[in-house]
Design goal:
By secondary structure, the chain is an alpha+beta fold. It folds into two domains: 106 residues, GOLD domain (Jelly Rolls), CATH 2.60.120.680; 50 residues. 42% of the residues lie in helices and 33% in strands. It is built from three helices and nine strands; from the N terminus they run αβββββββββαα. The strands form two sheets. Strands 1, 3, 4, 7 and 9 form a five-stranded antiparallel β-sheet that branches. Strands 2-8-5-6 form a four-stranded antiparallel β-sheet, with no helix packed on it. A hairpin with a 5-residue loop joins strand 5 and strand 6. It is elongated. 12% of the residues are buried. It is a single-pass type I membrane protein. Belongs to the EMP24/GP25L family. It comes from Mesocestoides corti (Flatworm).
Length: 212
């Protein structure tokens, strides 16, 4: 029982953690990331841009960034220009891989090199609990209970998503196996018919030459 409880707590603590990265991008180019999330799940991204000047990256308010997010069907659900530092938030409408693309328009012909620090949070990690506690006037215990309830709900969504994916791949595997079986059967029939017609032609040839 204790082992099971520890496994559940560990899953809740590490599920849907925040992923923080930074990358370099030239002005006028696009950098995309894929984030696989269940349906009706919060996706939040925080970013900060620095520009290369005199061999050092410095903060610049003159450089903005364009964020475009597409759902698994390729439908654009967010397309907006942001300032040099900020946060974007969406809620997924369908389950699957969402593409998050960031780009910066060139401010000069030289196309400066930018460094973008990006944090992407999914699920309950994307929720601003400090703001919720302030608005709803929750104490520490109530806030912690709220977080645990959100984590349980997120874990349930994730399990449903994984089951749906498993069912999809199972059907796909069965479909491929059926096609392979029918293709093998068709090949055998083709070989049988080919052999039959070859034997028939050989027999006709031997009869015509009076060899039989």
């Amino acid at each position: 029982m204790a082992v099971l409880l520890w496994a559940v707590v560990t899953s809740l603590l590490f599920a849907h953690s925040v992923s923080g990265i930074y990358f370099h991008i030239k002005e006028g180019t696009v950098k995309c990331f894929l984030e696989e999330v269940p349906e009706d799940t919060l996706i939040a991204g925080s970013y900060k841009i620095a520009v290369l000047q005199d061999k050092q990256f410095v903060q610049s308010s003159e450089h903005g960034i364009h964020v475009e997010i597409k759902d698994p069907d390729g439908k654009v659900i967010l397309s907006r220009m942001y300032s040099s530092e900020g946060r974007f938030v969406i809620t997924s409408q369908t389950a699957g891989e969402h593409s998050i693309c960031l780009s910066s328009s060139a401010s000069s012909w030289s196309k400066n090199l930018l460094r973008v620090a990006l944090d992407i949070a999914v699920g309950d990690h994307a929720v601003n609990y400090k703001e919720i506690a302030s608005k709803e006037k929750l104490n520490d215990i109530e806030l912690r209970i709220r977080q645990l309830l959100d984590q349980v709900a997120m874990l349930s969504k994730d399990q449903d998503f994984q089951r749906a994916r498993e069912e999809y791949f199972r059907r796909l595997s069965e479909s491929i196996n059926n096609r392979v079986t029918w293709w093998s059967f068709a090949q055998v029939l083709l070989l049988v018919f080919t052999g039959f017609f070859q034997m028939r032609n050989l027999r006709s040839f031997f009869l015509a030459k009076k060899l039989v």
